[in-house]
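Weekly puzzle thread! Below is a chain. First person to post its structure in token form gets bragging rights.
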Amino acid sequence: MLKAYGLHPRRRFGQHFLISRRVLDRLLETAALTSQEGVLEIGAGIGTLTVPLAEVAGGVVAVEIDQDLLPALRDAVARFSGVTVVQGDAMSLDLPRLVAPLPLPRKAVSNLPYNIASPLIVTLLERPLGFTRMVFTVQREVAERLAAAPGGKDYGALSVAVQYRAAARIVMRVPSTAFYPPPDVESAVVLLEVRPKPAVHVDDEAVFFRVVRGAFAHRRKTLRNTLAGALDLDPAIVDAATKQAGIDPTRRGETLTLDEFASLSQSMADVALRR
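Winning reply:
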């Protein structure tokens, strides 16, 4: 396809085209699409994944930032009336308007560009876009952070942000040889089962995520020290909030569960952040 259209992978767009049928089949199997569901694909490239999605789904919106790829992509999906090709940067597009034509429920299935994967996943989860499931290939280290449990080196603010809204699981590891050109890193297929409501109840999500970011601002520091510095608070205030939440202030943020972050954020709001 690339030769036929005189195309070359462009590094600035993070282009690594999927060439493994095994990985493609696993993406489709994990997505478990039906003809009643709509699909959003970001980074559609030359249609390698778009075509099999269109063969099953009730509608597909395929987003591609590189306008040079659009002729190949449009030709690949020309026989499908339910496919809409959109040229643009997914990070700046109006996502609710973008997915509006798709039937409900919706799923997102993509071989995501590495350079936007983490912020894009968070953005897709934050918006009420009607997704029930997301299946992505991402850099392996990113996949491990998405699915990480408390207490490990991979668990961080990204883990909490994603797991607050979705159950994350790594489906398979993907070698660099599954792509052309092969990237310098391994990838993984990750499954995100979007929760109908957040995993924990919080009164103020802004406060919750402010506390989460503060807790991971300096991973080697205790909650007392990192929250005091990140939130510009007296350590005594942090001590009072952690005591109210029943959490030892000498623990590190990476050891807290979502439930504990919810309790801590409520206590921080009560003690300090809304004074």
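Puzzle host: Confirmed. Bonus trivia for everyone else. The domain at 11-194 is CATH 3.40.50.150 (Rossmann fold).
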